[in-house]
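COMPLEX REQUEST
Ligand: magnesium ion
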Amino acid sequence: MNASIRIVDGAGATLAMLSRSVSDVLEEASRRAASEKCSRLQAIEDVLADHLRKLDVLVWPLALHRAVQQVDAATRAPQVAEITIESTSTALKKEQSMPTQRENGKPQTPPVQFFGITRTYPHKPSAALYESLVGLDRHKEALLTELQLQFSPELLEQWSRKHHGAVLKVVQEQPLRVPLVIFSGDVGCGKTALAETVGAEFVATGRYKHVHLLKLNTQVRGTGFVGQMTDLLVQAFSKALAEARSHPAEPTILLIDEADALASSRESDQMHHEDKAGLNTILQQLDGLRTSDVRLVVLFVTNRPDALDPAIRRRCSLQLTFARPTQAERQEIFRRAVAELRLPPAQLGELARLTGVAQSGFGYTSSDITDRLLPAAVRSSYIANRPLTFEAIRDEIGKTPPSPQFRAGD
Ligand SMILES: Nc1ncnc2c1ncn2[C@@H]1O[C@H](COP(=O)(O)OP(=O)(O)OP(=O)(O)O)[C@@H](O)[C@H]1O
Ligand SMILES: [Mg+2]
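STATUS: Structure written out below.
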């Protein structure tokens, strides 16, 4: 059963041939099913997805599903000479040429910007912001360790050999984990700031020449056309992988901020069909990263961890929860933010106390202090043409209440 596998466009024209025959795929799949203890069909799907990815061919999840069925059926019908997989490329071209909005009667098709931020570290402003983040030392350490082990799994093997004389089975299985980290927690507590700046500290370890960040644009949700979000997500992951592949010795982090917008729970009653398809695509792409030829770590940031689908949460290798700063942390935020004023500890402590649990039952977030309270104190001192003082900051506290707490269901 040496049937070949042809990739076609929507009109049936050949786009590419897979370098593996159906029997190769089946052989690879049975090895994978045994080693990963997954079902035969899942293993066929994973093998096909891997080969398609290497060819940079994008397919709809449904087309992949159909191809799996065809490969499976081919074992019972050895006379099959060829199976075909329909690529999204033509379908996508058709979709992109559809009018998405009309201006002066002319159809407009806004180009999709897959990444809102693409950054290469070292990057001085990021290093400074990373340093300024207070109270996150344990999160920083856990995150850096996770990144190091994800990008350099040989370190764990060295550790294992040193302490156990062999590479433990649990260590061998590490690279098969989905490289996914989730940041969750209250507003304004440094989730986005840490995610966007950790690369600066990671590169400072000296192990890599550069570290790269790609921040997914929420535009990839698309404008609601059937299959659009799925396609955009497949394209975004494929672009991220291509970027990572272009510098294989340098780590790439894919940041998905406000991830609940893309990966909300299927349990939600209002979940639109499009969102379900998008979520399935994310799951498929995340699983694909386990066996990808390049390492890409995905960082999900969310205020609403409960809104994330359990299948996403189950896959994450590290979850960090962010909370509002404690009294000591608020004091340190004030000390660093207005270091030039050299406020004595008693005054810094007083500012921290006043920004603690308010009548509303919660204290200030870190960003309430740095982005709202202190700028307000600077503004009023400027208007009064007076220096910025302890009193000016203290007087502003009553006028600038803390942000409401983020509750599930908000
Ligand atoms: N732990 C912290 N220490 C010092 N400054 C902080 C800290 N956390 C946040 N900030 C300040 O607040 C700003 C906003 O924080 P950030 O955007 O990271 O919050 P977030 O947790 O992502 O909030 P949201 O959930 O609303 O998106 C940061 O750029 C920084 O100036
Ligand atoms: Mg944020």
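REMARKS: Residues 132-136, 187-193, 303, 322, 333, 366-367, 370-371 surround adenosine-5'-triphosphate (ligand 1) (CB under 6 Å). The chain has three domains: 4-92, 111-322, 327-397.
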